[in-house]
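Appendix C: a fully annotated inverse folding record. The material below is reproduced so that readers can follow the format used throughout the book. The structure is listed first as tokens, followed by the designed sequence.
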């Protein structure tokens, strides 16, 4: 059950990271769409870039493409938000489909530009560097196969464009028209996917360890937190456990309710439980306030230890002070009618213990 809870928490933490990645791409597509609209509104000769090409760059088609990509990222971001809010699981297939579509964005852009500036310039322009953006962002998926898949998709599409456009280039072949140059760059894309997958896997592994640690800590705090102070719980969690034990000079306190058997025989079980809860909760607070720890409950009493696992050097003094405060508090509670008239016995002993 605990392992399943950790897996569920991890799944939705990964989805939250995925939503962050989609949000970053959504903003990027929105900025590019807006920039494309601005360029579309300018005269054809407004920028030197347009004077360098023989034919008009298809700004309209580019703007439409970025607009569609922007709407797609908005939809993906919304769907992920709903899934996380309702804590629903879904298969891995859509995540691979999403990775394929997003990684294909630079490919579509190179196809659009190839008709305007020629495939040699389009394939060797800064556009192929955009593949690295999607590969790096795939690290946020925290799934190594997805990062590797992203790198392989980028490499395959880039090589496919090179073979399609440059495979039939007549001699002499130059650096810009060589398919092997494209293949070499594609190899780097695959390596980048593997590296990002490794990084994502390491983050995932550490996240699992952190979730397991937090879950275990919460379990221990749930078990001991109602009986001991937070400082003692932290000490129990951080200090190594010695197999042979540790010898300490400590003060032990025993507390017992006098006449409890007779009291319990005249009350309902619910009344007895409410009485013990009211009495013990006050005593536990006083023990904790004086640097003690409840060792065990003994039906109508308990045993507390002063000096282990934490000690401030005044353990016997703390135990005596706690005993006096407990006796005075019980007397006041009995006089005020907060609890039934109660008499208690307290025993203290100081000495060396393991």
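Designed amino acids, in order:
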């Amino acid at each position: 059950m605990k392992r399943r809870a950790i897996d569920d928490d991890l799944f939705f933490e990964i989805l939250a990271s995925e939503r962050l990645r989609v949000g970053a791409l959504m903003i990027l597509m929105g900025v590019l769409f807006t920039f494309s609209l601005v360029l579309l509104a300018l005269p054809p000769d407004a920028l030197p870039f347009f004077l360098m090409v023989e034919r008009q760059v298809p700004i309209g088609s580019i703007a439409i493409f970025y607009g569609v990509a922007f709407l797609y990222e908005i939809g993906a971001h919304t769907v992920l938000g709903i899934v996380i809010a309702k804590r629903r699981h879904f298969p891995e297939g859509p995540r691979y489909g999403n990775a394929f579509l997003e990684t294909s964005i630079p490919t579509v852009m190179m196809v659009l530009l190839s008709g305007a500036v020629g495939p040699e310039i389009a394939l060797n322009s800064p556009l192929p560097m955009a593949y690295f953006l999607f590969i790096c962002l795939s690290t946020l998926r925290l799934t190594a196969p997805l990062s590797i898949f992203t790198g392989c998709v980028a490499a395959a599409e880039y090589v496919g464009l090179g073979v399609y456009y440059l495979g039939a280039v007549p001699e002499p072949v130059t650096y810009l028209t060589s398919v092997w140059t494209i293949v070499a760059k594609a190899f780097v894309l695959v390596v980048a996917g593997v590296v990002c997958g490794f990084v994502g896997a390491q983050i995932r592994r550490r996240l699992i360890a952190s979730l397991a640690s937090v879950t275990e800590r919460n379990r221990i705090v749930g078990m001991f937190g109602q009986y001991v102070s937070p400082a003692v719980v932290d000490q129990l969690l951080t200090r190594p456990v010695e197999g042979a034990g540790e010898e300490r000079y400590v003060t032990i306190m025993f507390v017992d309710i006098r006449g409890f058997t007779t009291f319990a025989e005249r009350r309902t079980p619910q009344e007895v439980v409410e009485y013990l809860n009211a009495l013990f909760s006050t005593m536990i607070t006083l023990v904790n306030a004086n640097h003690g720890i409840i060792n065990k409950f003994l039906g109508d009493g308990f045993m507390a230890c002063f000096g282990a696992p934490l000690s401030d050097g005044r353990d016997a003094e703390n135990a005596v002070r706690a005993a006096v405060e407990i006796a005075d508090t019980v007397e006041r509670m009995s006089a005020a009618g907060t609890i039934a008239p109660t008499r208690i016995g307290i025993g203290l002993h100081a000495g060396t213990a393991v």
